[in-house]
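Reply to dn_fold:

You asked what the input looked like. This is it:
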Amino acid sequence: GTTGPSIVVLDHVNAFSNLMFLNIDNGSRQALTASDVADGAIIDVGTGPLSMVVSPGANNSGKVFVAKQYSLASSGGVGEGEGSLVEYNDTTGGQAILSGFSVGSNFIVKPTAMVRSADGNTIYMADSSRIWAMNISGGIGNATVELISSSSVSPNTLGSGPTFGSVTAMAIDPVRPVIYLAAGIKGVIAVNTNTGERTTLS
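and this is what came back:
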């Protein structure tokens, strides 16, 4: 496990990326992901990890969820050969695929940002111009995935409002059914998780 107040940094080099913990007190670093745990990483997910969330509360305490990019997910590690959400238990050190990224005839291709619901049961993922909701309450192998908003024609548009893409960060409203997207030149966009409607805030 990790100790001390830390932030997670995405280290992107050419086509490969990995996540690391950065201790904000002393500047020490610990690899969170790498192509091999022998490289000093905590989680062996191969190449292509793009985003992560830490689970809240007693229900999933001590777990980290890492999303792997579909097109780069064939280079070893847990979830070899597919995009997936990998669950890592910081208490036991165990890791497993919580869910693959195949959704019918479509795929979650590039999950650049994630945020969890307040109850810890749902993880929202930004995938270019699409937002997916993954219900993880059923545990490993039983997660369900649903498209909740999209300004892309693939698989279909869903919800009205501004187009978006290249989401770099997400936040969730603690009271309303709304998530917020940092969408580059498109600004900050609010998405209603019930209807998929999108509103530009800035």
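The longest strand covers residues 6-13.
Hope that clears it up.
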